[in-house]
Amino acid sequence: MSTSIDFDTGFFGRLRAAAGDEWTGYVSHPFVRALGTGSLPEACFRRFLVQDYLFLTQFARAYGLSVYKSTNLADIRAAAAGVEAVLAEIPLHVGYCAGWGLDEASMAAEPEAPETMTYTRYVSDVGHTGDILDLTVALMPCVAGYAEVGQLLLADPATVLDGSPYGAWLRNYDSEEYKTSVRTALDKLEDLSRRYGGEARFESLSRIFLTATRLETAFWQMGLDAARPEPR
């Protein structure tokens, strides 16, 4: 039987609670809800898929930065595993996109949307100017947020899997392997918060988390805006 992830407890739970309505707006964005019901216009999902490919490239670089920011072998190994996980996800993403008529060369040639660039460069800037805990906090709205979105949609009776063009994408978030990786990331955040003074730094860390959450929300909106007519 599939097990759920507890997003309410620990240091992540505190960051999530501090983000309040911003977090709720992110994980229940209209893009997400339409994805669940299968009513999302396909142009919106295509836009998301292309930009997510470009996003993953930058996300791998951010995890690479977390290797550099680590100060012991255990943290270096954990950060390197994060790089490997993202690199392993990219071919899966490319394979999935092929089913939508999107090949890797054409996606790589697409310019980054302003929302993609703003979000990924923000995470990079946090990593360059802060320590490993700052960077990990900036990454968590993506790492844990997508898991929560998947968990919410898969538990929602309004969600359509069979016959939906998005059913296969949603099912990816129900695998135990995926959920184990998210739990590992949450545990790592908990460990770093203890060792790097997370409690004393909670105010500044919560600002990082809130900003990253807002930028994730803007990423959903970027996809949704693809359904709007082009301005004349």
Automatic annotation (TrEMBL):
Domain of life: Bacteria
InterPro entries reported for this sequence: Haem_Oase-like_multi-hlx, Thiaminase-2/PQQC, Thiamine_Salvage_TenA
PANTHER family per UniProt: BIFUNCTIONAL TH2 PROTEIN, SI:CH1073-67J19.1-RELATED
Gene Ontology CC entries for this record: cytosol
Record-annotated Thiaminase-2/PQQC domain positions: 22-225
Protein name per UniProt: Thiaminase (Transcriptional activator TenA)
SUPFAM superfamilies listed in its UniProt record: Heme oxygenase-like
CDD domains membership: TenA_C_ScTHI20-like
Transmembrane segments: none
